Amino acid sequence: MFNSLDINLIRKVRGNQYKAIAANRSMLPEMSGVYIWRYWPSLSDTSYEGMMKAIQAYQENFPASIEKVSGKWTAVELQRNYYHSDINTEFLGIPASSVKYSALLDSLRESAEARKALAHALEMIFLSAPPLYVGKAENISVRLGEHIDKKTGFSKRLEASGMNMKYVYISYFLDDVSCDGNSFSSTLEEILQRVSFPPLVKRFG
Questions:
Q1: DSSP string, the chain
Q2: Number of domains, the chain
């Protein structure tokens, strides 16, 4: 039998908690690469009330993506909301009017096993959701340090979002391919930005 996705492997992909990295910057590599910031809330409380509260917070706190489109005479700002802010209206994209919505809630109320299964499934959703930010660095240690010290535009946008930093994680992979600066990292950064559309990236590349 082929193996199913393992929850511990999924958690490795999310990287390290922001607060842990901020407190241990000396452990960051001084190499070029691409880094990814994700919002990954805890689902440790698997009671019905705890699960609903966590999902409500996730939907409320996931930042909208703002895109500005301008021409010679006009300028338009487009806002993309990934989730509805009210779980009583929509459950991670499923409208409350759907039969699936009521069936899911009934199952969660009745079964602790269903809640545990959903908690694991939600972590796969967190992994599949757009990352908050994708960036490149000639020196990951230096660049992440600038974000942590709030010296960048992204760090200011992140702070303005009001997101609970306890649930922000950072992962990265190193660029040991480029021969000239971080050219490979720069290309890969833009590709990842374009396919994932991170809400806190102001412009691609």
A1: -PPPPPHHHHHHHT-EEHHHHHH-GGGS-SS-EEEEEEE-------SHHHHHHHHHHHHHHSPPEEEEEE-SS-EEEEEE-SS-S-TTTEETTEETTSHHHHHHHHHHHH-HHHHHHHHHHHHHHHHHSPPSEEEEESSHHHHHHHHHTT-SHHHHHHHHTT--GGGEEEEEEE--S-SSTTHHHHHHHHHHHHHH--TT-SS--
A2: 1
Whether 126 contacts 14, CB under 8 Å: yes
The answer to whether residue 202 is domain-embedded is: no
Mean pLDDT by 10 residues, the chain (205 residues): 84 93 95 93 88 87 80 81 81 87 89 88 87 94 96 93 91 77 80 92 83
Task: Identify whether 76 is part of a domain.
Answer: yes
> Does residue 135 fall inside a structural domain?
yes
Domain housing 146? 7-196
Is the residue at 203 inside a domain? no
Q: Is the pTM of this model over 0.90?
A: no
